[in-house]
């Protein structure tokens, strides 16, 4: 029973992908939106783009880590 | 030992002792992870020795690649900290080069990815974390703790904000290390899984064997993505180091 619930928990942890996908999609769509309006200002904001991407993606990665901990550690 | 085919996607992260050595009960064995870290550092040193050996005003090819690396980190520090941040150029440059080389070496088949071990990334992140604290207190004294109380905020809000700022400061080494570790680990697992799908489909000898190439095509696309991630994670590690160091230089935001 407990053994099986571990896999259910790991499966549920993949839901973190949902939030990370929304966040990453939002960042790139806003960036492109703004870059199409003012292409000359776009290269200076590329650092911020990747920074925001990294911060959002990290939260998705935490979900992945919880899945790993459930599968291999607990 | 190294070239045995394994379908288990976690097998690629197993640490093997190449030379066993236990002085006084402490495990100091020379492992495959240690070897690839030394190999990466040797590659970096070798590359920059060659790039700077015949330095001239008009750079040759290898020298201009080295200069590109220098300019890349120099611009990053100039944009985030400013000119006074060049004190930390060697730190940021070594961190970037080490992470980048480790990630790239990991993309070569059968090579070990040292950044897929959380202990490696955690050591790097803790180095950055303690550098920021020690340098920040040395430079600003007690004013460094203004970092936790943003200026221009009404005091009732501070009750809420200060604990949040403290938590977000102390969670930094965790996120910094886990981001790199998680990205590299997840990427390599996914690559291995897709190749494993292809092999498993082919071995069924049934209808599935006719489309075994589909996961393999996906694996090729993912390899390209992983090269991007390998660079991107090194870049993000370096730029976050700069941003955290900026707090030590200018604590009151």
Automatic annotation (TrEMBL), chain A:
<feature type="transmembrane region" description="Helical">
    <location>
        <begin position="7"/>
        <end position="29"/>
    </location>
</feature>
<keyword id="KW-0406">Ion transport</keyword>
<dbReference type="InterPro" id="IPR000454">
    <property type="entry name" value="ATP_synth_F0_csu"/>
</dbReference>
<dbReference type="InterPro" id="IPR035921">
    <property type="entry name" value="F/V-ATP_Csub_sf"/>
</dbReference>
<keyword id="KW-0813">Transport</keyword>
<keyword id="KW-0138">CF(0)</keyword>
<feature type="site" description="Reversibly protonated during proton transport">
    <location>
        <position position="57"/>
    </location>
</feature>
<dbReference type="InterPro" id="IPR038662">
    <property type="entry name" value="ATP_synth_F0_csu_sf"/>
</dbReference>
<dbReference type="InterPro" id="IPR002379">
    <property type="entry name" value="ATPase_proteolipid_c-like_dom"/>
</dbReference>
<keyword id="KW-0446">Lipid-binding</keyword>
<keyword id="KW-1133">Transmembrane helix</keyword>
<feature type="domain" description="V-ATPase proteolipid subunit C-like">
    <location>
        <begin position="8"/>
        <end position="70"/>
    </location>
</feature>
<comment type="function">
    <text>F(1)F(0) ATP synthase produces ATP from ADP in the presence of a proton or sodium gradient. F-type ATPases consist of two structural domains, F(1) containing the extramembraneous catalytic core and F(0) containing the membrane proton channel, linked together by a central stalk and a peripheral stalk. During catalysis, ATP synthesis in the catalytic domain of F(1) is coupled via a rotary mechanism of the central stalk subunits to proton translocation.</text>
</comment>
<protein>
    <recommendedName>
        <fullName>ATP synthase subunit c</fullName>
    </recommendedName>
</protein>
<keyword id="KW-0066">ATP synthesis</keyword>
<dbReference type="Pfam" id="PF00137">
    <property type="entry name" value="ATP-synt_C"/>
</dbReference>
<feature type="transmembrane region" description="Helical">
    <location>
        <begin position="49"/>
        <end position="73"/>
    </location>
</feature>
<keyword id="KW-0375">Hydrogen ion transport</keyword>
<keyword id="KW-0472">Membrane</keyword>
<keyword id="KW-0812">Transmembrane</keyword>
<comment type="similarity">
    <text>Belongs to the ATPase C chain family.</text>
</comment>
<comment type="function">
    <text>Key component of the F(0) channel; it plays a direct role in translocation across the membrane. A homomeric c-ring of between 10-14 subunits forms the central stalk rotor element with the F(1) delta and epsilon subunits.</text>
</comment>
<keyword id="KW-1003">Cell membrane</keyword>
